[in-house]
Amino acid sequence: MLRVFAVAGLSLTLLAACSPGADKAASADPNAGLDSEILAWRTDLEASHPTCAAKVEGKGCQDFQVMCKGLQEISADETAKGVASKVVAAMTFASRNPDGSTGKSGSAFAVFTKANGAWARAESPPVNMRTCAPL
User: Fold this and answer.
1) For the chain, is the Cβ count within 10 Å smaller at the N or the C terminus?
2) Which residues contact 33 (CB under 8 A, 6 or more apart)?
3) pLDDT tops 90 at residue 3
């Protein structure tokens, strides 16, 4: 019986020892936090994009879909300024009609740049919706 507890205790100790390494790997990911930034972008589009201007039951748009995300090349100048990641993304959505049906389609494009641990977003020219390559 004592052996079972010893083995269980040792297993938990080993598991705990592995966990900090997993946290370090996640924090070393240059794209960590990007999903949260894309959700914030979606919220901003809902509030300010012309396609979403008319609100139905408090919502202006529906069917938000990220069509692509593509890593962008980081220049030496950007690296010197602390840029660790640069990603372009394309999102589609549609307005809502008063009867609940889908209305006018819309799209938006943004470049997300992570520098010194913080993300910034800027509008981007349109990109290919499948590859995120410039048009």
Assistant:
1) N
2) 114, 119
3) no
Answer whether 51's CB lies under 8 Å from 110's CB. no
**Distance between first and last Cα of the chain:** 68
Sequence letter at residue 21: G
Query: Torsions phi, psi of 90, nearest 5?
Result: -125, 135
Torsions phi, psi for 130 (to 5 deg): -95, -35
Assess contact for 112 and 121: CB atoms under 8 A. yes
- Domain definitions of the chain by residue range: 1-30, 31-135
Please give the residue that has the higher pLDDT: either 17 or 81.
Answer: 81
Q: Give 63-121 pLDDT, tens digit per residue.
A: 999 999 999 999 999 999 999 999 999 999 999 998 888 999 999 999 999 999 999 99
How many CB atoms are located within 10 Å of the residue 112 CB?
22
8 Å CB contact between 61 and 53: no
Q: ∠87-88-90 over CA atoms, to 5°?
A: 140
Coil, strand, or helix at residue 104? Answer: strand
- Looking at every residue in the chain, the average pLDDT score rounds to 85
